[in-house]
Amino acid sequence: MRRALIFSFLALAVLALAPEAHARSTTVRTSQGTITTTRLANGVRHMKFRWGPVRIAPGQNTISIENDNLLPPGPGWITSFKPDLTYVDGKVPRVDVIHLHHAVWLVGSGGDIRPTWAAGEEKTIVREPKGFGWRYRASDRWLLNHMIHNLTPVATRVYITWEMDFIPLGARAARGMREVKTQWLDVEGGNAYPVFDAMQGTGHDGRVTFPDDVPNAYPDGFVRNAWVVDHDATLVGTAGHLHPGGLWTDLKITRDGRTVELFRSRAHYYEPAGAVSWDVSMTATPPSWRVAVKKGDVLSVSGTYDSRTTSWYESMAIMPVATTVAPAGGVDPFTTNTAVRGVLTHGHLPENDHHGGSPTTLPDATRLPDGPRTPTVDIAGFAYKQGDLSSSGAVGRPPVVSPGQQLTFVNEDAAQNVFHTITACRAPCTATTGIAFPLANGPTRFDSGELGFGPPGFTPAAQRKQWQTPADLTDGTYTFFCRVHPFMRGAFRVKG
Q1: Cβ distance 240 to 303 under 8 Å?
Q2: Residue 192: pLDDT band by 50, 70, 90 thresholds?
Q3: Rounded to the nearest 10 degrees, how much is the dihedral formed by the CA atoms of 235, 189, 308, 404?
Q4: Phi, psi (5° rounding) for residue 172?
Q5: Edge to edge, what strands does the sheet with 141-150 contain?
Q6: Which of 138, 150, 263, 451 has the most CB atoms within 10 Å of its CB?
Q7: Model pLDDT for residues 397-414, shown as the tens digit of each residue
């Protein structure tokens, strides 16, 4: 019964976003892409935007911020947002090949340009409750912050796409509309690349919550996960954003020293292996959710990850909250429970079908003969130049260092703006690449970070191209992979 209700809701959500049958559509082409508009009832327009094409370099994993001139035709209201990514032929890329790590639309004018809509690889669909919307003004400027991840050494071209329901200012459907703005709540708020690590074995009972369970989560003393409400308002909607391994985000409110839960956005995994991939959708607040907040209240967000068997590097926990410009009713969260069950915004997506983990012909490094004793391994051409498991012969054998000796990896691909990591995975670490394999689940944890260079604060790059293995590794064979290009697998050996 519960499953039937979920899928009934999803069917209604899809119908709500879909244009009416046989409605008249027009397409406008610009230098940045295309806008297709379908006229619906009461003056509502369903608009599809296709931005690009964007050339994605081999192995790309960088952030770009560009002007977005694909805009509505005039003043009005935006009431829904549905993101996606396609090849130039319209097909959606497999997530383990090309994926949209993020796209964030920064919207506004003057000094008030704020993150307003966003897309992560879980592709949450946002629809405001009836009568609420984001106000679009012709003077608004739109910027698009995007990070498209190419997990392969092959260049390609893609479009960033999104759909919106737009109500022109004079349309019948625009009567009585109330304005919302997006209040961006992020556990690493203030950072352009707001990530943290959720390490295996940390937290409690196999779960770790950031920042609550992380000592010295904010070393500079600046609390990044909270916002002091600056005007009386009504919260009308939110949903969380997590990376694989994430279980839920929590939105809380504090007033006069008392803290209560407002909403928990849960990750619903379709992934057979559990909370280990992008095959997930997040729950959002139901359309009837309304919370009255007062000036001086403190809203805060946290993110909880599964830490039982795997470490999750460069994780996120974000909850954009649709907040009214003026109060519009709502319940007092300190007298009424607002932490109701959420609703899924979509079901399983076919681009997440390739889970990986099948057998391959790659060798088990623990059974390979010793490679050369060497202090350095170069990484070039998307391969570890000694100990790469896809290499045959002597070059594929694990390089050897003595106990206490550190092996230095050097990313020579950094000159082409390509990042690589050396991340521990459980031997033999040879199964097929997919959205659920490989995992950072080595019995001994190590990770180099993304070796490479980029604008500080606006890139995942570690700002170095070298990394050394830990000096305290005991005798044994250690297998690893590249988190950026997980088809890359390697091994090294510590031997007295």
Answers
A1: yes
A2: confident
A3: 180
A4: -60, -40
A5: 63-67, 141-150, 98-109, 112-120
A6: 263
A7: 999 999 999 999 999 999
Q: Model confidence over 131-147: pLDDT tens digits? A: 999 999 999 999 999 99
**Given this model, what pLDDT does residue 428 score?**
98
Percentage with pLDDT > 70 across the chain: 95
Characterize the bridge pairing of strands 226-228 and 80-87: unpaired
Cα 140 off chain centre by: 26
Asked whether residue 9 carries a pLDDT value surpassing 50, the answer given is no
pTM exceeding the 0.90 threshold for the entire prediction: yes
Coil, strand, or helix at residue 3?
Answer: helix
Q: Is 266 helix (H, G, I), strand (E, B) or coil?
A: strand
Closest by alpha carbon to 470, among 490, 442, 446?
A: 446
The residues near 11 (Cβ < 8 Å, ≥ 6 apart) are none
Q: Which domains does the chain have, with CATH numbers?
A: 1-176 (2.60.120), 178-353 (2.60.120.230), 356-496 (2.60.40.420)
Backbone conformation region of residue 28, classed left if phi is above 0, alpha if psi is from -120 to 50, else beta: beta
Residue in this structure with the two tokens 């379908």, named with its chain if needed? 38
Pairing label, strands 258-269, 246-255: antiparallel
Give the CA diameter of the chain.
80
Distance CA 361, CA 83 (A): 38
Are residues 378 and 410 in contact, defined by beta-carbon separation less than 8 angstroms?
Answer: yes
Q: Which of 62, 120, 61 is nearest to 278 (CA)?
A: 120
